[in-house]
Amino acid sequence: MAVTANAAREADASDERVSAPRRSLHAQVRFARIWLPAVIVGVVLVHQLLIVPLGGDTWRFWSQLAFYSILGPIATYVTLNWIATEVRSRERAQVELQRLYRELQDAHAVLGALQRVTERFASAPDLERAVEAASHGVREATGARLAAVVVGASVVSVHGDDLGDAGRGAAQRTALERDAALQRDAASAVTLTEADGGTTTLLALRRGGKHEGSMQATFDVVPDDKQRETLQILAADFAAAAEAVQGRTRDLLTLFEVDRSIRAEGNLARLLVSLVSRMAARVGAERAGVYLSDDDGTLELRAAIRAKDGAYETWRPSPVPIRRGEGLVGRAAVGREPLILSAVARAERAGGGPLLEHAGSAVLLPLSTDERLLGVIVLAHDEAGRGADVSLPFLGLLAGQLSLAVGNANAYLQSEELAIVEERNRIAREIHDGVAQSLAFAGLKLDLVARLLRRDPRAAESELQSARSTVREMIREIRRSIFALRPVDLERHGFVETLRRYALDFGQQNDVGVALHIPALPELSLKSEAVLFRIFQEAMNNVAKHAGARAVTITLGGGGGMVTIEIRDDGRGFDPAEVGDRVTSAGGLGLRQMRERVEGRGGRFEIVSDPDDGTTIKASLPA
Predict the structure, then answer these.
(1) pLDDT for 219
(2) How many CB atoms lie within 10 A of CB 307?
(3) Is residue 553 predicted with pLDDT exceeding 90?
(4) Comparing C-alpha atoms, which of 536, 531, 545 is closest to residue 477?
(5) I want to staple 621 with a disulfide (CB 3.0 to 4.6 A). Which of 25, 97, 524, 603 is the partner?
(6) Average pLDDT rounded to a whole number, residues 82-109
(7) In 235-346, which ranges are E strands?
(8) Which helix (H) or strand (E) holds 59?
(9) Looking at the domain assignment, is residue 377 inside a domain?
């Protein structure tokens, strides 16, 4: 600190001046008691033995009178003058020490104020509060009548006495204008004279040579050196603190966006590209990608990006599978520890795949769970020496989030495979219990027709009509099953449009009037949309198969933080207690499974049905 350094230098100089007399005054006086009497006695003896005998009685009288009248005052003067000189030296040293002590007290007070101010804006949770704490601190530490801190083009805080709303607004505009002028002139410090005679000092806040803002203080008079030094210290400390606060804010926003992407994005490939792009932007990497591990231990590049024109684009290089333990990527996979390489050797580039082909430095982060390795993230820089400045804890946190997303995706794929197997088993049971038995029944009828054709043509005709009816009913049943099982592309058409298309096709396929009411809806996650649509699809299939309805009304609405879909038909109702655990269609859901799906996502499921008054199914999910 400049204040402490100046005080220390002056204290050192004063110590040299004070320590010039090697011995204390007390020691010198004690020594003088020995040599001063001896000197006086020697002078008297010389006078008595050598001077007095030179003349007669008159000479002796006047020589002794002159000698003693001169010697006494001279000895007294010399002694007192010597003592006065020593006392004056001690008094000067005391005054100097008192002055330095006061300066040290002032420096201590300034340093205490600097520490308090720095702690306040360094511990601020966001940039706005850090700027507010800094503007208050400038006045507290320097005694300025008005202080302003500007960061960027919009974050500004002004602190002064009795400003009021109008005065504060005017002061903020002035601070922004002066900061813009400071940036335009590329100046680091400027002093301005106010109209009332005050003085304003502006100091630029820089990071990496780039103008980030300014610290401004207005004084009633020209600030002294101590005030200027204090302001410079505050500006330097605040620039570092603001960078740290902005870094924390960026990290929190990145974590929030990553978490939101994981929740909202159902496509693993797009999710990998999105997350690795955020990680690459965080460290300024030119290329980045994610290798995922297969069951046999092979690492395959599943997502890659590269910088182009200030942004990142998806990159599809020629895939080069990497075995565990081979090259940098394979070693990172085996070691399960991050690799930070400030320089990548040419031999390591050759075996590192397309991401490391031109890398000067790189960071490799393994993706893993407690049980198994999932993959490796690669962040590559063209320049050497870039790996040392990465925030490894933050990147590790992002890698953990990505590991969670990959693990969930793998679990989802496994559950999908199980669901497909279960779906096939259900379809097989449905065909066996429905279509197969109906076909067998129709076959028996046709055999009977063949036997009756000559003996009893009328009975044969009756049995033939029964077989025709059975076949037609089977055709309708197969069409209903195909309609219920056809794939639905929610992601392509959107939830509402897919609902409209399905309702229109349903009415045409089943000769049922369908009315659809859809007001404005809040935004839904893809998972919630999928659950609601599956409930809607199953309810409509139940209408076609069991209700015998002539009209269906579908209402979709939102309110109270929930989105609700209601399907009401005018067909044959039923007792929900009797059929609640029954699978209702090919690949369909029973009513209990429908309820579990909705309630499993924090929603509500309700069935109202009466044998004579149709059925209403209502499902609500959080928006």
Answers:
(1) 92
(2) 18
(3) yes
(4) 545
(5) 603
(6) 84
(7) 287-293, 298-308, 311-314, 322-323, 339-341
(8) helix 57-122
(9) yes
Tokens matching residue 591: 């009513």
Task: Count up the domains in the chain and report the number.
Answer: 5
Q: Are residues 106 and 21 in the same domain?
A: yes
Per the structure block, which two tokens stand in for 340?
A: 């930070």
Could you tell me the residue range of the domain that residue 182 belongs to?
A: 125-251
Give residues with Cβ within 8 angstroms of 539, minimum separation 6: 567, 594, 617
How many other CB atoms sit within 10 Å of the CB of residue 403? 19
CA distances for 473 relative to 137, 320, 466, angstroms: 85, 55, 11
Q: What is the pLDDT of residue 249?
A: 77
At 335, which CATH number?
Answer: 3.30.450.40
CB 390 within 8 A of CB 340: yes
Task: Provide the CATH number for the domain around residue 494.
Answer: 3.30.565.10
For residue 586, which of 480, 471, 440, 441 has the smallest C-alpha distance? 480
Whether 567 and 610 map to the same domain: the answer is yes
Domain boundary among 390, 417, 435: 390
pLDDT interval class at 462 (50, 70, 90):
confident
Q: If pLDDT is split at 50, 70 and 90, which confidence band does 278 have?
A: confident
| C-alpha gyration radius of the chain | 47
* Per-residue pLDDT tens over the stretch 153-186: 778 889 887 777 788 888 888 999 899 888 888 8
Strand partners, 425: none
* 12, part of any domain: yes
Contact 616, 549 (CB under 8 A): no
Of 14-28, 45-59, 166-180, 544-558, which gets the smallest average pLDDT?
A: 14-28
- Whether residue 265 is predicted with pLDDT greater than 70 in this model: the reply is no
Residues 106 and 30 in one domain: yes
1 pLDDT band (50/70/90 cuts)?
very low
What mean pLDDT, rounded, does the chain reach?
Answer: 80
d(CA 449, CA 462): 9
pLDDT band at 488 (very low <50, low <70, confident <90, very high): low
Residues 6+ apart with CB under 8 A from 535: 565, 589, 594, 597, 598, 605, 617, 619
SS3 state of residue 185: coil
Q: Give the pLDDT confidence score for residue 605 in this predicted structure.
A: 92
* Cα–Cα distance for residue pair 318/408, rounded to 1 Å: 27
Is a pLDDT exceeding 70 seen at residue 8? Answer: no
In a domain, 399, yes or no: no
Is there a single domain that holds both residue 57 and residue 155? no
On whether the CB atoms of residues 522 and 563 are closer than 8 A, the answer is yes
Contact partners, residue 219, CB within 8 Å, separation at least 6: 142, 143, 144, 145, 198, 199, 200, 201, 227
- CATH number of the domain within which 452 lies: 1.20.5.1930
Task: Please indicate, yes or no, if residue 479 is contained in any of the structural domains.
Answer: yes
Same domain, 605 and 617: yes
Residues 163 and 272 reside in one and the same domain: no
Q: Which of 116, 148, 180 is the last residue of a domain?
A: 116
Q: Check: CB of residue 190 under 8 Å from CB of residue 182.
A: yes
The per-residue DSSP string of 580-601 comes to: TT---STT---HHHHHHHHHHT
Which pLDDT value is given to residue 552? 93
Question: What are the residues whose beta carbons fall under 8 Å from the beta carbon of 493, sequence distance 6 or more?
Answer: 501
Which residues on adjacent β-strands are paired with residue 308? 311
Q: Both 273 and 318 in a single domain?
A: yes
Residue partners of 471: CB distance under 8 A and separation at least 6: 442
Claim to verify: residue 366 and residue 416 sit in the same structural domain: no
